[in-house]
Write a structure and sequence with these properties.
The protein is an alpha/beta fold and about 170 residues long. The chain has one domain. About 20% of the residues lie in helices and about 30% in strands. The chain has 4 helices and 7 strands, in the order E-E-E-E-E-E-H-E-H-H-H. Strands 1, 2, 3, 4, 5, 6 and 7 form a 7-stranded mixed beta sheet that branches. A hairpin with a 4-residue loop joins strand 5 and strand 6. InterPro entries: YwhD (IPR014852). This is YwhD family protein. It holds the Pfam family YwhD.
């Protein structure tokens, strides 16, 4: 497996010691300080922080629809939300969730379920692991990226993450 090329190395966002939310004033806001995003396309995975605000390179110039039947051709991508935290052993991948997105670059159209993406982002922030829907090739690419990015963080991560990303063959 290979990684998508990156001009510069991008790192996962690490949780800061200070919170930016204060009581009821920011109620309803999501603190994205410890959230990163990964784009998986087949056997390639790369950190792409542009996904957080729907401004990744693959999304630019694409008109999105919520009707999956309108985009039956094109490339299937997986947007993976990764929340990082610290435990007694050190930093680890605390929440990892995936959601699909299909883009037909030739037709300049794409499909994604925005509510599902937001819910999965929230799940990652709540330290949940939800990557079981991904294909085996995509899981292997994500697992390789997470391990190669930081073996210590992978070692410190929940068994649930490791089991969901393990090959089911």
């Amino acid at each position: 497996m290979e990684y998508m090329s990156n001009k510069k190395e991008i790192q996962f966002n690490i949780l800061s010691k200070k919170s930016t939310t204060h009581g009821a004033y920011h109620t309803g806001t999501i603190n994205l300080n410890n959230l990163s995003s990964v784009l998986v396309e087949g056997d390639k995975a790369k950190i792409d922080l542009g996904l957080i605000h729907a401004k990744s390179a693959v999304e630019r110039g694409i008109k999105f629809t919520s009707n999956e039947d309108e985009v039956t051709t094109g490339t299937l991508y997986w947007v993976v939300w990764v929340a990082v935290d610290r435990n007694e052993q050190g930093p680890y991948y605390a929440g990892v969730t995936a959601c699909p997105m299909r883009i037909d670059r030739e037709k300049r159209v794409g499909w994604k379920n925005l509510a599902f993406h937001v819910n999965r982002m929230d799940d990652a922030l709540k330290r949940r692991i939800k990557v079981a829907e991904m294909g085996e090739v995509e899981k292997a690419a994500l697992k390789e990226l997470l391990i190669n990015h930081n073996e210590e963080m992978w070692a410190n991560s929940k068994t649930e993450l490791k089991e969901q990303l393990s090959s089911q063959k």
